[in-house]
Amino acid sequence: MSSFVLEKARQAGLHIVGLTFRAQDVQPGFVFFALKGANVDGNSFIAQAVQNGAVLIVSAQNAPENCPVAFYRSADIDKDMADAAYEFYGRPSDDLCMIGVTGTKGKTSIAYLLESIFTASGQKVGALGTVNYRIGGRKICDAPNTTPAALPLFKLLAQMKKENCQKVVMEVSSHALELQRVRHIWYDTAIFTNLQRDHLDFHQTFENYFQAKCKLFENLADPQNPKPTKTAVINVDDEYGQRLAEMLKGRVNIITFAQKNSADFRATNIREFLTHTEFEINGTPARINLLGRHNVYNALAAWAAAAANGISQADLVRGLAALPGVPGRMERISGKQAFFAFVDFAYTNESLERALATVKPFAKGKILLVFGCGGQRDRTKRPLMGHTACAQADRVFLTNDNPRCEDPKQIFNDILAGMKEYTNYEIIPDRAEAIRQALSQAQKNDIVIVAGKGHENYQLVGTEKKHFSDQEEIFRFLQEKKYV
To answer: Alpha helix locations (H) across 89-146?
Structure first.
């Protein structure tokens, strides 16, 4: 399918050398897509784009008066942008083996595990996800989005094709599916992890959220999908996974995984430690340097997807064990201290419960938790997280996460609504100070969990993006106390 935008440019005799939705990145010969976002309206920067050399403006709005360059009003700018990116960058996804991972939790860990398995088998891997974007293990850039917008996405895929990646593993968010960021990407394998409460500020209802996730599998099952082996890898311990498997029956190859229900790949004899997890998959011993039963699900998903792509059992075992950890996912910060310290990305009630449940069996002392909730996001999860925090941890330090442009007091009040029956908490708005207080109070064998930001190295306060890292704050404390 050709791009209507690029066809218009050809008809106008324009030579297009680049595409962007950032006016500051425009160079002579570029197409500028004036996107209207939640906080910034690209239409306000059309004059700047023209000044920088844009030869064609694409917008969902009418052209500004006396627009000095070609203008195209788009009825569906997300679609038109994806169409243009696909064609401009040479349709790279057609020639790459594409593996997409979707679901509420587990996407990042599964992507890292798959990357490790494919690498262990001698293949070069491109990876796109929440932490960063990588080629052959080399970081290309940090990730502004779990799934890039269509323009940077196809540019990255073109680079992966040029560098001879044999597999591309990408996290596919529900936002990306709704906003058509992955339009024109035909997947070979699609993985469903689970469905939990999240992003209802965007999707409004849980059913809408599920249907957004289903779009990845509709892509897989589409008769136009030219990929030779179209495989859905589904967690059938999840009720929505069961529903998805029924929807796809007879349309694609389905591989299931589970810990409880019968499945094609099943984990048994799970043994948990504070340093790693051991288990068997269909009787084969395996080990991951990740903590908790939820990561056994992630290992199952990666194992099943890699097996579907022809990876040997020996490489599956070696690849799982080779991954040292996942940034910000129950990441242990070690020194000579007598207590344990972890950084985790838990930002939903379910993930917070899971983090606390993972360490509880090993707690010889107290569990101290630092957490908050992001501003301008789903408010319904806040009291649930407050209740879980106080019910499962011995001491809670309530602090700011990414308040964005929302009043932190409102965020705290929403969280406190779930903490009414408890007194084992204190409010310390300054996140650095909250972390320091938790570490200062930790005694021998205590476990400190700093939750919510994980791999993020920034904090969003108002419209400002400030450098902030939970890991760095913990290391700073350990250095001051001469624990490292």
So the answer is: 107-120
